[in-house]
């Protein structure tokens, strides 16, 4: 039985463009789909659902699920719920999950599987929320919070791209605007409070705004219904706001 990777990487050279992720979805011998990522020294293979490595930490679907259960069902010596903190081994395993979901998120973006990229982004953001609440110390929390803006950026891009695939330019614009708002909030509540000078958020915000301008130009969108609603509320035109809310709800129903 051969154990080398020659057959796997044959015809799949490692020659990415700058910033490009080389990924593909293939069928394994047992019929399940897996994702493969070409790296310089070989290939990473990831499961498409659950933990990318296919494991079930302590019987849970993901390590985040286990951490949530562990925090909610702490032993008497662990102290009160809000004060429970992650031990070193929790941090090591959480970091392992962060890395795995990062690789799969980037693969989904490369493959234009936007719904799955959003799913994995949400998992990472939820894991970041858990770390922010239960992290062992400020340095450990900061090591993850510094990347929150990037995950939000990827999520907004995936939402917008998925909306464009479905021919919904207004929805794409709203997704990008939501992404900018989340990045601005993270800028204020994390980077500026710590007087940080190396925040990546401004460049990410600028990229989302450029994407928004491009969509407006290409699809001749002046103002989305949500933008019109925000303006109506701001000028206290509540009758117009009610009409716009009805339009937005009706639009959402037709998309289900």
Automatic annotation (TrEMBL):
InterPro entries, per the entry: UVR_dom, UVR_dom_sf
The UVR domain, residue ranges: 219-254
Superkingdom of origin: Bacteria
Transmembrane segments annotated in the record for this chain: none
Keyword Transmembrane helix: no
Keywords: DNA damage, SOS response
Protein's name in the database: UvrB/UvrC motif-containing protein
Organism: Paludisphaera mucosa
């Amino acid at each position: 039985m051969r154990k080398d990777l020659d057959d796997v990487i044959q015809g799949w050279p490692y020659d990415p463009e700058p910033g490009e992720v080389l990924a593909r979805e293939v069928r394994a011998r047992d019929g399940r789909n897996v994702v493969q990522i070409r790296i310089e020294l070989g290939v990473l293979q990831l499961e498409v659902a659950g933990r990318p490595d296919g494991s079930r930490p302590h019987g849970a679907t993901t390590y985040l699920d286990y951490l949530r259960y562990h925090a909610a069902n702490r032993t008497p010596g662990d102290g009160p719920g809000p004060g429970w903190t992650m031990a070193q081994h929790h941090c090591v395993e959480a970091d392992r999950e962060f890395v795995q979901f990062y690789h799969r998120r980037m693969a989904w973006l490369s493959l234009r599987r936007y719904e799955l990229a959003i799913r994995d982004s949400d998992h990472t953001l939820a894991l970041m929320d858990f770390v922010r609440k239960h992290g062992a110390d400020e340095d450990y929390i900061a090591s993850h919070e510094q990347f929150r803006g990037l995950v939000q950026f990827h999520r907004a891009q995936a939402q917008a791209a998925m909306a464009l695939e479905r021919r919904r330019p207004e929805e794409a614009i709203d997704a990008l605007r939501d992404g900018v708002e989340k990045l601005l909030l993270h800028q204020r509540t994390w980077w500026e409070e710590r007087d940080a000078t190396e925040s990546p958020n401004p460049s990410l915000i600028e990229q989302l705004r450029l994407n928004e301008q491009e969509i407006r130009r290409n699809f001749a969108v002046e103002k989305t219904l949500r933008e019109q609603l925000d303006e109506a509320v701001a000028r206290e035109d509540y009758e117009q706001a009610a009409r716009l809310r009805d339009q937005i709800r009706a639009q959402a129903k037709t998309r289900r």
